[in-house]
User: Fold this.
Amino acid sequence: MAHVVIMPKQGQSVESCIVTEFKKKVGDKVAVGDVLFSYETDKASFDEDAKVEGTVLACFFNDNDEIPCLTNVMVIGEPGESFSEYAPTGAAVTEPAEVTMAQNQQENVASAGSATIEVTASTSPVASASSATGPTVNAPVSPRARRLASEKGVDTAQIAGSGPHGRIIERDVVAAQGAPKSGLAKAMMADGGLQAPAAGS
Assistant:
């Protein structure tokens, strides 16, 4: 029997959460305890674990989507099970038979292996990440982004958020300060008499 994964409600005042990353995709095998996706509220970050084992049949949203609490996010079950009745309003649904047909068509024209078709929302009932053109005054900052900015000394007021409604998310801070050198890379550079450049240079 198909199992629906909903967006948890973390507190009475929380109306929606932002998915920072889906760890499992359509077609992936899932065991109890596996992290399905990471999400955050205005105050904290969380991981949603699988309560059942099976295969991811549907995923109705994308990374960085803002999803209302208690909304169906994913469906886990056995391959071939129907899941269209669990799709949120406005979500485009591809049933298993249609997925198989599309995969067969791709296999006939592609030189590589078969492609996995994911169920995504063509008209998402919630806001998707918007492309920001510049810093927004008093833009909301996600907890992960705020923590990283504090650690790296990055001024979030100078960052253009790429999340929903101009929200500054972790990847925006990473882009602003540049990819940091790993400890191993710094050690190798030190052995060679080189100085690791400062973040963002």
Remarks:
- The chain is about 20% helix and 20% strand.
- Residues 3 and 76 are 5 Å apart (CA to CA).
- The longest helix spans residues 96-109.
